[in-house]
Design a protein that fits this description.
Four copies of one chain form a homotetramer. Chain A has 302 residues and is of the alpha/beta class. Chain A is built from 15 helices and nine strands. In chain A, strands 1, 2, 3, 4, 5, 6, 7, 8 and 9 form a nine-stranded mixed beta sheet that branches. In chain A, α5 packs across α14, α6 crosses α14 and α12 packs antiparallel against α13. The first copy, chain A, is globular, with a radius of gyration of 19 Å. Chain A starts with 8 loop residues before the first helix and ends with a helix. Chains in contact: A-B, A-C, A-D, B-C, B-D, C-D. β9 of chain A pairs antiparallel with β9 of chain B, so a sheet runs across the interface.
Amino acid sequence: MAISKRTDLALEARELLQESAEAITEIDGVIAREYKRHGCPVTRVEILSEAGEQAMGKPVGTYITVETQGLMRHEEDAFKRTVRAIADELSPLLPVGGMYGVLLAGLGNRDITPDAIGPLAMQNSVVTRHLVDKMPEEFGHMRPVAAISPGVLGTTGMESAELIQGAIQHVRPGAAIIIDALTSRRLSRLCSTVQIADSGIVPGSGVGNARAALNQKTLGVPVISIGVPTVVDAVTLMADLTEQAGQPEPDWSEIAKFSGGLMVTPKEIDTQVETLARVIGYAVSIALHPEMDADDVQGFLG
Amino acid sequence: MAISKRTDLALEARELLQESAEAITEIDGVIAREYKRHGCPVTRVEILSEAGEQAMGKPVGTYITVETQGLMRHEEDAFKRTVRAIADELSPLLPVGGMYGVLLAGLGNRDITPDAIGPLAMQNSVVTRHLVDKMPEEFGHMRPVAAISPGVLGTTGMESAELIQGAIQHVRPGAAIIIDALTSRRLSRLCSTVQIADSGIVPGSGVGNARAALNQKTLGVPVISIGVPTVVDAVTLMADLTEQAGQPEPDWSEIAKFSGGLMVTPKEIDTQVETLARVIGYAVSIALHPEMDADDVQGFLG
Amino acid sequence: MAISKRTDLALEARELLQESAEAITEIDGVIAREYKRHGCPVTRVEILSEAGEQAMGKPVGTYITVETQGLMRHEEDAFKRTVRAIADELSPLLPVGGMYGVLLAGLGNRDITPDAIGPLAMQNSVVTRHLVDKMPEEFGHMRPVAAISPGVLGTTGMESAELIQGAIQHVRPGAAIIIDALTSRRLSRLCSTVQIADSGIVPGSGVGNARAALNQKTLGVPVISIGVPTVVDAVTLMADLTEQAGQPEPDWSEIAKFSGGLMVTPKEIDTQVETLARVIGYAVSIALHPEMDADDVQGFLG
Amino acid sequence: MAISKRTDLALEARELLQESAEAITEIDGVIAREYKRHGCPVTRVEILSEAGEQAMGKPVGTYITVETQGLMRHEEDAFKRTVRAIADELSPLLPVGGMYGVLLAGLGNRDITPDAIGPLAMQNSVVTRHLVDKMPEEFGHMRPVAAISPGVLGTTGMESAELIQGAIQHVRPGAAIIIDALTSRRLSRLCSTVQIADSGIVPGSGVGNARAALNQKTLGVPVISIGVPTVVDAVTLMADLTEQAGQPEPDWSEIAKFSGGLMVTPKEIDTQVETLARVIGYAVSIALHPEMDADDVQGFLG
C-alpha cells in the first residue's frame, strides 16, 4: 500500500513499475519500454536478474500494462483496438511450440461485481477442448482450450489452487492463463488498465485475501496472468489524491485504523467490469486462436 | 459536502441532524429524540418553524433515521425486526383518513447497483390497485397501491418528475412514497441507515445529478421519501476518516479538484442493496396493508 | 389460436399473413410481397381497404415480417445485417416531415425472460431528448427520442396505456414506437422473426393477458409496433407439429382443457431474447438517427 | 421418452416409479410407499435386488420424490415445510458415522435458466470446509462441507466428472451430493417435484446431453443425487396432454421428427428455478448441519 511509500524502499521501487520507463531502465537488471499498440499506451518492464528482482520487489519476468481508457471514453473502434492490443501483447508470452492445450482460469466471485471479472472473462472466451476431442474432423486444427471458474474460498470451501491443480491433472495443458481482479494502488488505474505478466499470480489479492501463489512452480506449467484493478483501498485512494493535490500528508497509518480495510469501487463498476471481461475474453481467444478476429469470436460465442 | 463544514454554518447545522438529539433540541424550532424500535436505533428530528428551517437548512417536516447495521451483522431476526421498525416509523407519516390509494415510485437506474435500490424496492412491494379494481369481491378491502420505476434521465430522456406526474394524474392517489438512493455524507452510514422524511425529495441526489424536487407542491399530494445512502463522495470519505483519526486536515477543496467527483461504493454493494431493497419493500407493504406481516408479503410476492 | 383454424375463416385468413405472398395478393384489398433485405427474408403485407380488413382480420395498415434465423445460426455478419434490415423496413413507416420527437415504449416484465424483450430493447436504444434539450449546441441536430418501460399491470397496478399516455402528454412526440413480446402461432417463428406494423398493438398479448389497444386513436400519435414472438401456447405447439408431420389431428379443444393455458418457451430463451433486444434497439436507433451506424450506437450506449 | 411407452417394457416399468405405490410393491424386489412429510406428498421406492433392477430399469437404490406444488401455490409456510421435508428425506440417505466431510456439486449452466438450478443451489448452501480448517476453535464442531459448480462441457471444455474427481482428490469427502436439472417425462412434474436418489446421476440428462455417470463407482464415495425436472421434451408434452384428454394418439415418433428435439419450459421459469434452488440449498444445509434451521441458514448466507 502506498501508505508507507516514503520508508519502504522495495515498495517504492515497485511503484516505479508505474512510473517512467526511462527511470526504470536506470535500475540494474531491469529494462522498460513505453509505446503504443493499436492506439493503447503500453508499458513493458522486464526483470532480468536477481538484482532486478530485489530492486523491483517482484520475481524475474515480463510485466506489461495496457491502458484501456479509450474504452471508457468511447473512442472510435476502442473495443476492437483494445482487444487487438492485449492479444498482441499476450501472444509473445505464450510458450513457443505448436498446438499444445491451454487452461484458462477466471478467479473471483461472480456475485460481487468488482470481483467478477475472471468468471465473466471465461464466459467470453472461445473454449474448444471438447470440440477438438469429439469432432476432430471439423475442429482438429484448433488449439484445445479449457476454461474453469473455480469460485472463491468463502463460497466453495476450496482454494482456487486446489481446483486448478485438479483441472491441470486432467487437461494436461502446455500453459495456463489466469485472470483475476486486482487491488489498485492508484485511483487512476481503476478499471482502466490490464496488467499481463508471466511470473504467476497470487489469487484473491484483488479483494484483500491473499492466497497461495499460482505459478509454474505450484502448477507445473507456465502461467500467464491477466489482472484488472477494480477496487482501491480507501486509505490508498486518499493518499493518492492528497499527493496529486500537493497537499500536506497526514499519518496515513493512523487514518487506516478507522477505514476498517474498506475497499471502494466506482459507482459505474457494473458496466466497466462487463466491458473489460469481454475485452479480455476476446483478446485471449484471438491470442490462442490466431485464425480468429473479434467478429469470429462473437460468432463463436453466439 | 463536509469539505466546507468549517465555514458554512447552515451546512454545519445540517450535519447536526446526525449528531446528538440533545444538541439539536437546543435549537429553536427543532425537536429531536433518540430511541430504539424493535432493536434498531432511531433518530427522529422535527423541524417545526421557519427558525428551525433556517437553523437546520431543511424544510419544516419530520426526519427519521433508522439504523440497519444489525442486518449486515446478521443479528438474530434482523430482517424482520428492521422491516417492522421501518414500517412502524413510516405509518404515522401517512395522511390519516382511510383507504386512499398510494403511488410508490422507485427512483434510480436499475442497471447501476448503488442506484438500483428504488427499482428493486418496487419489485418487493405489494401492489394492489389492479386487484382492487378488477376483483373487488376478493380485494376490495385492501388499499389500492400502484408502483412506478421511472428510470433515469440518461436512459429515458425524461425527468422522473414528468413520469410520476403522469402517473399521479391517472392513479389520483392520496399520497406518494418515493424511494431513492442517497449520497452519504459519512462512510459509516453507507448502506446502514434508512432515512424517512415527509418533506419531499430531490431525485438523483444519490448519484450527483440533482433534479427538480418531488414534494407536495410539485406533485399535488403528500410525499413521503425513503432514502438509503449507497455512495459516498471520495473527498468526503477522506475528510470523514481524517477527522475520525484526529489527523491534521489538508485543504479538501484542493484535493477535490483531483477526484473528478468520484463517487465510491463498498465492494459488497450488490448484496447490501438487494437486502435493503427487500427490507424497504416489505416495510412499505406492511405500513400500507397493516393486515399483513412479513410472511404474508413474501407469500403475496411469490 | 390455430386450434380452430378449420372453422374460423377470419382466423384462417389471418394465418395467411404467414403464408405465400402470391396467395395473399389474390385477396381483394390486400397486396403482399416477399423479398430479401440484407440477406434476411422479408414478407410485406399491405391491407388497403375494408374488404382487405375483413378478409385478413386486421386493420388497414402495413405488416412486415423480417426473419432473423441467421442470428441463431451465427451466419457471417448476421447481427449487422439484421439490424440494417429492420432499420430499413422501419424507416418508411415513420411519418414524413423532419425532426419531430419520438417516444419509444418497451412493454413487458423485465423479470420474466420471454416477456423482457421490450424493456431490454429500451436499454439498447439511443435516447437523446435530454441531450437535445440541455446541450443544444452539441446535440441540437439530433432527433429528440425518449424511452419508457412501463412494466406490467401485475407489478405496477397500472395499465401500460396509462403510463404511456402520461409520457406522451409531457414529451409531445410526433410518433410512438412500441416494442413487445408476442405469442407465436407457430413454433418455427419463436425468437426468429421480428414483426413490424403501423396499425398499433394490443399489449400483453405476448403472455396471454390482452389489454386496451395502443394505436393512433388511443394515443393521439402515429404508432409503429415491433413485436417478437417469444412464447407459444402448448396446444398450438402440438397442433403445429402434428400438422407438419401429416398425422391425424385430435380434438385440440379437448386437449386444451388439460394444458391450463400453459405457455412454453425454448430452453435457450435467455440468450435469444438478449440478442433480439439488442438487434431491435440498434435498428430503431439507426432508423431514428440515420447519421448513425451500428458501431456508433454501440459507442453511444457505452 | 413416453413416446414408445406401449412397446418398450423396461421404460413402461420405469414409468411406474411415478405411478401408484401399491402397483409398484407388487413387483418382485421393489418396495414402494406413499406418505406426507411436513405436508408435502412423498413417494419412496426401494429397489432391492437384481429382479427389481430389471423390472424398474434402474440400479438398486432408494428413489424419493418430494412434491413441491405448495410452493407455487404460495401455501402457508410452504417454504419452510418443503425445506424441512427434503432435509428429512435426505438425512437417512447420508452414510452413517459422524462428521466426515461432504462435497456438494451443482451441475449445469448458470446462464441458461432451466439448467441453473445446480449452481444456484450452491449459492444457497452453507459451506464450511475452510472455516473448520482455519478457525477450528469456532467452527471445529461443524461438518466440513465444500461446494463446486463445475459448469458444462460447452463452456468449460471439461466434463463435470473430471472437475468433480479433481475436487474429490483434494477434499477427500465421505460422501458427495450432486444437484442437477432433469428432463421431465410429464408436464405435471415440471418445477414441482424434487427427486432424491442414492444410486448416482447422469449429468446433463436434464438438457439432452447425457454424460458419463457420477456414482460411487466413478467417484469412489457414496453419491446422493437431487434432481429437479425443469424442461420437458415438446413431443412428450404433447403425448402427456393427449393422454390426459383421452384423445386418440397419433404416431408420436413421426411427430418427433419435426420437433427438432425442442425442449420447452414454462414462461415463469425464472422465479421457479430461483425458489427451488433456495429450497434445495437450505434443505441440504440443514441435513448436513442438523444444528441449523432455515433461519440459521439465512443468517449464515447473509
